[in-house]
């Protein structure tokens, strides 16, 4: 998408805002408008602000969110997640295993010498969160650490609005009173390559069909799992990317039950006594000593290809190097909260945030890496407003009962957005 000229853009939104005010002042609120207003107010009360990262979010138990050719599904009760490709033709395609309620893919934390599996672990509490840009999973290890994994949609091309990528940001916040050494690991139970000619490929290795470990991604750049129709590409080296210290391709069970940094047997097959041809990807990031109420942040990207198309990850990495992407690469090194006084202030801010308007989705991709709570009238794209109205009309025309909840939420968002504009 070519973003609107700023002057025309502001004029359009201001006219829309004035029109909304005028309409309200000359016409009595209808039953539908009153219902939408109450729903928006209810939604706004659920809105929270994370005291450590500043992210605005709405907690939800289980939900899915789709943008462009990607769908993210979250299971807050288990702390599990899954990613899907959404092609133009045909149904959605799982990019990760869906067995065991998505639990075969997981993030892990190592605090000093203790390892924690963050998914489906009674020692770890989890919360799924809907954000303005996608979804998050927040994990809490009592009196030790809070791990927040953010999945934010973004387009691979700066001048496009079509979402075909996810930025994954992992925040590890030390909530203990003393410094702790924290390290993060992730295991992705990939599935596409298991029925294809090649399980994996990289920028320098066109085919990987046996166990291997890569300790420097400088040349390989990315890791891709694909079949003839769909692909998932993990971008693991480049400007603004936290390159893992170890990338391990192995059987899923070996990765899940092995040592923190997996030990490999080069050229061993991806089969085990429990599963045939069950390959998976393990990512280890170097640990650091983190002071109390400070954080460790790691970032990488995922690119998705559908309908037989190659993911745009390689071109995106070139754009990153040239500084031509939709996002800046600035990410916080530390949590915003640094002492008990500021934590108290953050809690007060969170209480105030519960009484503010719910978030609005931003169309300008340059806003993706800014503080999500900082929005102005120029952030709101009129095209998104029209798309929202069109989507509501389409669902209402469909007449299906299963659409009622989505219609309710969309109407609430629209009403909240109008009030947001009038309050600017």
Can you characterise this structure?
Helix 6 (about 380-400) runs antiparallel to helix 7 (about 405-424). The two termini are about 25 Å apart. Strand 9 and strand 10 (about 135-140) form a beta hairpin. The longest helix has 21 residues, at about 5-25. This protein has helices at about 5-25, 30-45, 250-255, 315-320, 340-355, 380-400, 405-424; strands at about 50, 55-60, 60-65, 70-75, 80-85, 95, 105-110, 115, 125-130, 135-140, 145-155, 165-175, 180-190, 200, 210-215, 220-225, 230-235, 245-250, 280-285, 290, 295-305. The chain is built from seven helices and 21 strands. It is globular. By secondary structure, the protein is of the alpha+beta class.
Distance between the termini: 26 Å
| Low-confidence segments | 1-25, 328-381
Oligomer: single chain
Structural class: alpha+beta
